[in-house]
Amino acid sequence: MQKDLYESVKRIYGDLGVDVEKAMAKLDAIHLGIHAWQGDDVRGFEADSFTLTGGCMVTGNYPGCARNADELRKDLDFAMKLIPGHHRVGLQGHQVDKMFPGVDRDAFTIENFRSWLDWAKERKIGLDIAPAFYGHPKLDHNLSLSHPDPGIREFWIDHGIACRKIGEQFGRELGTPAIVNFWMPDGFKDTPADRFAPRQRMMESLDRCFAEQISSDFERDTVEQKLFGIGVESCTVGSHEFFMLYAAKHGKILCFDTGHFHPTEQIGDKLSSIFCMMDEIFLHVSRGVRWDSDHVTVVNDDLLSLARESVVNGFLDKIHFGLDYFDASINRIAAWVIGARNFQKALLIALLEPDCAQKAEKQMDYTSRLALQEAAKTLPWGIIWNEWCERKGVPSDYAFMSEIKRYEKEVLSLR
Ligand code: RNT
Ligand code: ZN
């Protein structure tokens, strides 16, 4: 049945000049960065477990949260069996698998992350890491790298440096450079009297974090902007302008979190501007809902436009795709799987787009362009998606939940 459907749909696309085999091969080559922090509610595994701060919030109390790095790896292994393709894993700087007495985040080394490295090596996957500038008592008045107290800044600068070195080691041993993503929650609930001084301090602190040159063969620094967070409504120190210019000036990679802009802003629209002047970006693929930036991605217009702009303009090899959302009100493994597969679907839809609307546009025939853009919406891409899942040996959209339910019963519910 699926085979017959596939052959017919292949012909439908073929008539429109679309090679479905090529589209699937391109999708094969896209490696997502699966964000480990969906599995532990961004708690990390330090000796003291601090509450999540910094304007991020994980709501929900679904049973089965990973309580240590072993459980988290087990969950990731399971989730990755249900996500077609070969992917990387992104860690937060407090998702250690080992703590040493008296060693805090400012002095973490690869020894705190050794079994992550062994795990990744065995599976031949890349690892990324992001310093965790939140969920720790040293985040004071919601300020880290921009704090007026040099002692507090020092602690966080050292954490940034520590994560870069851990990333370098990941890159060296895994043969693929680690992305080390800098996002700081620094900001103000109410109107600050001085917006300039914190930004200057943040800039100086970042310069210190990045002072040591690390080969880009092993480690890549990315900087992530944000508009606002919960409790940080009036001013974020690391705003979009701040980080866009910082990245451009210092040759860093800009990270766009798709939930970090005004709700009506389309991130897809930004890519073609950025790539006129930059060569590479990192994406935190997420879904903003009103004031919150971190919902599980669904196939909505924002996601479709982001995927389309990445594919149609030929930007795929310039973008590192990472996921970033956390929901504790549903099964956490399902959250990973649903969100990752949704982004892959959006990419596939883009890879299957016929070029007739573009041709109409070149003729200045905007009426036909609109008709053809709408026509593309009813193309039977779902059949190609099912075919790809089957070829990759993963269950279809209607089948993966039963596997997750089984794991929930056998593993998660016993935690
Ligand atoms: C927060 C940023 C950041 C975090 C992670 C947990 O709004 O998006 O990337 O999600 O550091
Ligand atoms: Zn993010």
Task: List descriptors.
415 residues, binds zinc ion, binds L-rhamnitol, TIM Barrel, 14 helices, two-stranded antiparallel sheet, alpha/beta, 12 strands, 8-stranded parallel β-sheet, globular
Secondary structure class reads: alpha/beta
Q: Helical segment tally? A: 14
Q: What is the third-level CATH name, the topology?
A: TIM Barrel
- In spatial order, strands of the major sheet run 3-2-1-12-9-8-6-4
Overall number of structural domains: 1
Portion of residues in beta strands equals 5-15%
Radius of gyration: 22 Å
As residue ranges, the low-confidence spans are: none
What is the arithmetic mean of pLDDT? 97
The best one-word shape is globular
- CATH class, named Alpha Beta
Instruction: Tell me how many strands there are.
Output: 12
Q: What small molecules accompany the polymer chains?
A: L-rhamnitol, zinc ion
Q: What are the secondary-structure elements, in order, as H or E?
A: HHEHEHEHEEHEEHEHEEEHEHHHHH
Question: Explain this structure to me?
Answer:
With 415 residues, the protein is of the alpha/beta class. The protein has a single domain (29-351), classed as TIM Barrel (Alpha-Beta Barrel), CATH 3.20.20.150. The chain has 14 helices and twelve strands. The protein has helices at residues 2-15, 20-28, 69-81, 114-123, 150-174, 196-209, 240-250, 268-277, 301-312, 332-351, 356-362, 366-376, 381-391, 400-410; strands spanning 32-35, 88-92, 127-130, 178-182, 187-188, 219-224, 235-236, 253-257, 281-285, 287-289, 292-295, 319-323. It has an eight-stranded parallel β-sheet with strand order 3-2-1-12-9-8-6-4. It has a two-stranded antiparallel ribbon with strand order 5-7. The protein is globular and about 65 Å long. The mean pLDDT is 97. The protein binds L-rhamnitol and zinc ion. L-rhamnitol is lined by residues 37, 42, 56, 92, 130, 183, 224, 226, 257, 284, 293-294, 324.
